Amino acid sequence: MEFDLSWLLLGLPLAFGLGWLASRMDLRQWKRAQSDSPRAYYQGLNLLLNEQQDKAIDAFIEAVQHDPDTTELHFALGSLFRRRGEFERAVRVHQHLLNRGDLATSDRDRVQHELAQDFMKAGLFDRAEQAYKALQGTPFDTDARLALLGLYERSREWEQAADTAAALEKLGTGAFGTRIAHHWCERALELDGRGQPDEAAAALATARAAAPNAPRPLLLAGQRALRLGDAAGALALWGDLEVRDPQVFQLVAQDYAEAARAAGQQEAARQRLTEAYRRAPSLPLLRALARLDGAELADAPGLLPHLAAQPTLSAALGVLARPVEQWDAASAQAVREAVARAAKPLQRYRCAACGFEAQRHFWQCPGCLSWDSFPPRMLDEP
């Protein structure tokens, strides 16, 4: 049987035409798929910029369905879920990405960082800690350590917080000495509460070594010394504190006066407190001077001049505590000025819509332009 070449000549063009037609259909379908995904992506981006998060999430979900291999869409979707407080959905999105075998190392580290933030926001601190620890040695190392530091401080794990802060300082992230001192001070308070005085003293010593100029270790050490009956030791520690940080010293000024009375060093303490008051007059120092004589603030001879110079409500209350027979015109005038000064910030009207405050009543708020949003009563009225 002879082979008819005419069929071959007819079949080749037909096969070529069918192949070309099939390729065009595949190309058209591919282009349609590619165009659908960016359209949904840009639509979601536009909705996000317009603060329409619900619709933006729907658009991004549609885009992910069209192109499930696009990592950036997953990142955007996970961040949106976390911002909306839908932490479980955010975790699922990021864990789905993390389980992909074709994910680049840089993207994997980024996903791990996002997942750690999901756990942190959701209050799953144990899982957040593990997720952040997995980022050590990656480009997110510093961010992870800073997050762990905040996590340990929140959960009051002070020794781990101090170790993390020390590691950050070694990495050149910044100076953490004062923060480490606070960690060991908190640890000392915990140990004292548990009846472990020796360990508490060691923790305070570590705090002072971490930040020699920090005021809190000196303050706590003086309080511990006074509780243990060492009034002279407390005076020495607080005297050092007054030199280093006079403002913080005011927190223990009355305790300083009590320690001076217990140690029989009233005159030396009076000189120090008087000089400190001369440099920076304050009510705690004036109260401490009165305490040296076993008196209250109302009995302090310098109270009225202090009220005239600093008309505060606290000083006015001290004057009001005096017996009526000790009142005079100067006392009444000083109290009147103090009350007027304290009341002035409250003699305002506040917009119920935006919080804008003004000294006069407005029918339309100058801040948010709302009508009838100013109550007719001032802030100091019930």
From TrEMBL:
InterPro entries in alphabetical order: CellSynth/LPSAsmb/PSIAsmb, LapB, Rubredoxin_2, TPR-like_helical_dom_sf
Keyword list, A-Z: Cell inner membrane, Cell membrane, Iron, Membrane, Metal-binding, Repeat, TPR repeat, Transmembrane, Transmembrane helix
Cytoplasmic compartment residues: 24-382
GO biological process: lipopolysaccharide metabolic process; regulation of lipid biosynthetic process
Compartment(s) of residence: Cell inner membrane
Lipid bilayer topology: Single-pass membrane protein
One Gene Ontology term of the molecular function aspect: iron ion binding
GO CC, alphabetical: cytoplasmic side of plasma membrane
Top-rank lineage group of the source organism: Bacteria
Ligand binding (Fe cation): 351, 354, 365, 368
Cleavable signal peptide: none
UniProt KW Membrane keyword: yes
Residues covered by the LapB rubredoxin metal binding domain: 349-375
SUPFAM superfamilies: TPR-like
UniProt record similarity statement: Belongs to the LapB family.
HAMAP family: LPS_assembly_LapB (MF_00994)
Its biological purpose: Modulates cellular lipopolysaccharide (LPS) levels by regulating LpxC, which is involved in lipid A biosynthesis. May act by modulating the proteolytic activity of FtsH towards LpxC. May also coordinate assembly of proteins involved in LPS synthesis at the plasma membrane.
The name this protein goes by in its record: Lipopolysaccharide assembly protein B
Gene: lapB
